[in-house]
Design a protein that fits this description.
Layout (H helix, E strand, L loop, with lengths): L1 E3 L2 E3 L1 H13 L3 H9 L6 H22 L4 H11 L5 H16 E2 L2 E2 L8 H17 L3 H18 L6 H15 L2 H17 L3 H17 L3 H17 L5 H11 L15 H28 L2
Antiparallel strand pairs: 1-2, 3-4
Helix pairs in contact: 1-2, 1-3, 2-3, 3-4, 3-5, 4-5, 5-6, 5-7, 6-7, 7-8, 8-9, 9-10, 10-11, 11-12, 11-13
Length: 292
Amino acid sequence: MTNTTGTTVEFDELLASARELSLAGRWDRALRLLDATTCDTAGDRARLALAAAEVALQSDWFGGTDLTAGRAEHAEKESTGADWDLAFVRLRHAYFRLLRSEGIFRPGPEGKDPEALAGLRRDAQALREDAPDEVRRGWASMYLGLIADNLFAERTAAPAHYEAALGAGESGGDDLLVREALRHLGDHDHDAGDHDGALERWRRATALGARAGMVPGVLTQQMLLAVLARDTGDEAGRPRWHGRSSAGPGRSAPTTSTPRRPASSRGPIRRLRRRRAGRDHRRASANLRYGP
């Protein structure tokens, strides 16, 4: 049992609630919940600090914050010994920092410290070898693929790691790992011109993310399905997916009509919409190709 202000709750339920809030993009709320909690044992304090570091990582990736370093350092202080999950948080954060600089995605090895890149790959390999279970081994494989794909520009080497992650997620019942592997395998299908393969993988990834309540990831994935519809000439599918993205997961966009603007005012609005759509497409593509 764990005490919050004036309330006693089951600790596992509290951590699960914070995780669900984080998946839904409510990172501030999740961190406030965790920060308002006090634990009686060192082990629970370590788990609490680790959960906060994991939420901070999601906030940094999707929300553009800079919280992980401080939260991971606090989790390190609270840790009661070697902690695979905390080491994995640090690996993901290091990947993120090497990939994105000053808010801009910078894939590939150019301009990066070769030793830092090699060290990150060694850390991922060590995590895979030391993983305490199949699912964690699958997550380490996932990041070996991302590192090869996006930091070393080894596109042909990455899919084998994603396939290993997919197998681990399916056999271990981790829908989010399956989703992540499908997203990136679908990206390779798309680049190879296999639109049917990409569609199958991306549809399944979208459904898994929606089932897990992963709001930012679902919206990003729906945008990519709209891009795929455009690429395959499905003009009917493109607005359908865009409409769902704007309305939210599981809902259709409103169908009520609005008064038509005068023709003289529609040109600038259309240009603005095209610019916004381009930015959304680039953001969605970055989130697809580079990480969770």
